[in-house]
Amino acid sequence: MKKCKWRDYRKITEYVKFLNRWRNEIILLIVNIFYIYFFTTLSIRYHENFMTHAWDLGIFAQSFESFIRYGWLFYNNVELPYNPSGSFFGIHFSPVLFLIVPFYFLYPSVETLFLIQSIVLALPSITIYKIGEGEFNSRILALLMALSYLFYLPLHGVNTFDFHVQSFIPLFYSLCFYYYRKHRFRLSYISAILVLSCIEFSPFLIISLGAYIVIKNFRVKTRYYGFILILTGLFWYFLAKSVIGYFNPIQFRFEQYFVFYGLDRVAGSPQNFISTLLKRVAIPAKIEYIKIIFSPHLFLELLAPLELFLLAGSWLLAIFITSIPMYFSPYFQYTAFIVFQIYVALIYGLKNFRKILLHTMVRDKLWKCIILLIFLLTLITSFILGPIGFCKLDENVMFEKIHGYSSETYMNFRINALRKALKLIPQNSTVLVPNNIFPHLYKNFKAYPSLIPGKNGYPLLLDKVILKNISKIVVGSKNNHMYFHGYIYNISIKTYSYHQVIYINKYFRNHTLIYNLDRNLCNFSEIHISIVFKPSISNISECIMYCNAFMIGVTQEKAPVLTIFPINRDKICVIVPYKLMENRIHNLTFYINSTHIRSLINDQHILTIRIGKKLIGWIVDNVDYVLTDTVSAYANFRIGICPIIISSKKYGLYAAGDGIMLFKKNYKGPVISLSQGNYTIEFYDSIVPMDKPVLVMNMSRIEWKKWFWPIIPYAYKYNVTRIEYNVSIEGVLQYSFVNPAPKVFYTNNIVDKYSAIIRGAVKIDEKGVYRINVKTAYPSIAEVYIDEKRVEGKVYLNAGYHELKMFWNNIAISYLKFQLKKS
């Protein structure tokens, strides 16, 4: 018999040699496969737990669905209020979407998008390995760099938040840079075009890369390739601007407004402009974000300033300028703009560090130890803080996030109720759904996560403020209390047709001055008040000046406060986020009109707040179903969080349970239970339970996440002062609602008053003393009754079932947690 070939010694030797020759590549391949598998399955778990969102997974999923099914140019209804064309190209210029279409066509599901995203984010590790191999002359050190990239915490933030086109930038940029180093300029240029095709910010990345190549190769012909990249980037920027403007003319104005928010108010004053920029640079979350990016690498990127500030500088500059917290949070997709460039700067920084160690005895050993240390630090920080480990970064409240790295969501027990509710919604019905539910209904083009005037309801705006007439002012106190302690120099009062300066120059302490104005101020729509004063040491709230129209004072924490007493509204109180220095002269100015309050301190803008014509609710109409998830408010990208108001006359409760409520138009039948829990919660539209409950549902657990909006949509009470038709909504909302609203409701007041009674049975397995722990948020109060006896603190209970009854009164913030533990 012939011997088997696998027993041939020479074959085994060749096999061993092959493994030895390619062991680094095999290790990198294995870790890449692990990375792709782990983050794809993690993203799927997020999706199954309703932790993905209309912004942005729903946008992309529906865009691909519309292109494949109907041939529409990446249409989605998520952004219809501010992108009437519906095309994704009206928001972002991303031709790269065409490359994804064939893969989505093969398996049209969000899982396909998750897999593609994990693959394209993992592949740059290969180019990092090749670049590191060329710069370090060591395959093992290059492998450590590549593995460090795969375990880099900011990269994981990109991979764990939905799906985004920015995820393609590291791969295409890495190919562009790699082929440039190899002088294969055709392939590099093709890769640059792919970078540009990702998003309209990409031209800045390519322009900065072109500038880097020109500076780096100024004396050789390679510089011409840099000039070509710069010209291509400029051309592409104007192309992107034209395409986006064609589909949505307002989008570029919004982008500038969004990124540079607030800088326009101080642009006229160089001193204030520089001061504002410095304050933005020193935002604590930005500092922490910079630490997360650079500290695992020991900040060695700074040793390669050309690579760091040219290749990554365009986005770093945007981070430092803006005050939008999403841009400097490790939980969003924006780190993809610079994640590869960070590693290029790290490789060149390590190379320069080696040159610094040129004359030391232990140069190579120390240098290799530094690279090993960087790998270990990256691995440890990722394991402790990130999704592959303990997710400890989720405990940091400094960063903006939609959800944490952990796949555990709030009120996890509600997930089954959500799945049951979705099965009750007919496939082609019109339905209004929350942000986190839409990715499960994106194939229904009549499902709306956005608040669209006319399609799924109408805006409820707070009416303009009508200011009271003024005849005199009181300086130093309010009705002989809240005395001011300090020096007041002068007070200036100015309207459109009136201006008076009152010179006081007096130190106040427990006394008051009354000044009659030259003439009564009547029917004015705007007033400017300026006070020059010097506060003294005090630990109580103080009143600087008072009249029947407004009061200006100082809080205990020495923050200015303005209270307005309008004719048509309840009082409006605004605390200015600024701490006044004691025994220092300050010039405090307020500009008040029917819609805004603007405050300046020492001629520096501090705060602008809208008080009139403000969106405060959404009156639902014209849809078949409305779904709410533990709170009757919807999160929309540009609007923020808006309360949802449902009329009990138009919509009946169709199904409910575990905080999930499904309303159906003109429904009057019995409520379908979405939960098999042991508890029943009854909601009342008053601060204490009275009369009949307005909504009843079962609960699996006595728990509610902390929300600042009511749980039930029936809780809102308001009066309609007037209705207007074909209204263009002003202010910041002009970027949220491009087209005029067909109908707008105005109110001068909206309140939410509701309470609840929770009933059920608790099972006690072992008799003994039990500690009752109930947590609520002020000003709500929870009273617990067991077997019809009021209990607090500790109670002795026998084994068996006991009747539980809890009164949850005056619910302003819907936070509740009940625990019964044996002492």
Note the main attributes of this structure.
single chain, six-stranded mixed sheet, 20 helices, 823 residues
Secondary structure blueprint with pairings:
Blueprint: H1 9-21, H2 23-48, H3 54-70, H4 97-106, H5 110-122, H6 124-136, H7 139-150, H8 153-160, H9 169-181, H10 185-196, H11 202-216, H12 223-247, H13 251-259, H14 270-281, H15 284-294, H16 305-311, H17 313-321, H18 339-356, H19 363-385, H20 415-423, E1 431-432, E2 447-448, E3 457-462, E4 470-475, E5 486-494, E6 499-508, E7 513-521, E8 526-535, E9 542-546, E10 550-554, E11 560-564, E12 572-575, E13 586-593, E14 596-601, E15 604-610, E16 614-620, E17 625-629, E18 633-636, E19 640-645, E20 651-657, E21 660-665, E22 672-673, E23 679-684, E24 695-699, E25 703-704, E26 716-727, E27 741-752, E28 755-764, E29 768-776, E30 781-786, E31 789-791, E32 794-797, E33 800-809, E34 816-822
How would you characterize the overall build of this protein?
The longest helix has 26 residues, at 23-48. It contains 20 helices and 34 strands. By secondary structure, it is an alpha+beta fold. Helices cover 33% and strands 26% of the residues. A six-stranded mixed beta sheet has the order 2-1-17-21-20-22, covered by helices on one side.
- Helix-and-strand structural type: alpha+beta
Distance between the termini: 77 Å
Shape annotation:
globular
What topology, given as strand order, has the largest sheet?
2-1-17-21-20-22
Main pleated sheet: 6 strands, mixed
DSSP strand count: 34
Count of alpha and pi helical runs: 20
Low-confidence stretches: none
- Overall pLDDT score: 91
Helix content: 25-40%
Rounded to an integer, what's the Rg over CA atoms? 31 Å
Content of β-strand:
25-35%
